[in-house]
Input
Amino acid sequence: MENTWLIGQDDVARMLHIVGRDALMRRMISALDKGFTELGQGVRSESPMRTGFTRTGGVPGVIETMPHREPGLGVTVKTVAYSPWNITAHRLPTILGTIARIDDDTGRLIALTDGVLLTAVRTGAASAVATSRLAHPGSRTVGLIGTGCQAVTQLHGLSQVLDIGTVLVHDIDPEHERGFARRVDFLGLDVRSARPEEILAEADVLCTATSVPVGAGPVVPDGAHRPHLHINSIGADEMGKTELPAGLLRRALVCVDHRGQALREGECQQLTEAEIGPSLAQVCARPEEVAGFRERLTVFDSTGVASEDHLALDVIMELATELELGTKVPLEGRPEDLLDPYSLAGPTPAHG
Output
């Protein structure tokens, strides 16, 4: 009997301790760059749009499912919840999730792991891939609007593809902003607080990673900026929620990770389909077509796609195999008589 592979928090913590944050992020960046390139070449399949439920009745946020299938290899399904009140109300991360790998031939559950770290790291890695392809190669000043959990891995990912000199940050929560330098001190970077308009004007690369409510954006003004500014906008997770001004978007080459999702719940909600540029997969597969755009304004509208989770889970499973981490458990029901669901192996159940 084949068991399900559980990769728990202790396993992931051990993984981080052994290989280190940089090695994990570099593996993730490499996997996503290769995956997006293969998608642009037609080697991989595109993920369907995520679907789920928007909470009503006073509790904001969404609970969604994100499936991806590689025929003959496996299906990855992530359940993910965005709950902006979690930190203050429940002492939980804003984004929670669980990721499962299912055998494509049998439907058997192969592996199950937590999605908190995986989601944060793969989102930072996706921005790093987009930045490496679209940003000016001499970019040294990074700006961050929003300094929560996602901002840590955004900056970490960028540090692997840029020679960063200065980091400018702003958050509407002063405690989040003050604590950010401590959370990223492992990077050894100069982190300074600044107003949004200063960040826009001085940054070579800007990341917006906020929990702005639906209809309350933008979080950055439409003002003066460097001609070659590149922006990674990663806050998209609800219809009606946007972080960037429409005027700025219309002046930019807008690159998306998933066109359908971007139009439904990304920054591209503010644009027509004709105003949207290439996908990240197209940029990775044909970089020569966008080489000239490194000198002008570019935006990566990152809505997060299940193919990224599929690739990220590959990385986690490969590391867990190398380090012999995780626990194999008989999670699925396996009746002795395959035509009798009550004939489960094990102790004789009580009557009733």
Remarks:
- The chain has two domains: 4-118+307-329, 122-304.
- Residues 122-304 form a domain with the Rossmann fold fold (CATH 3.40.50.720).
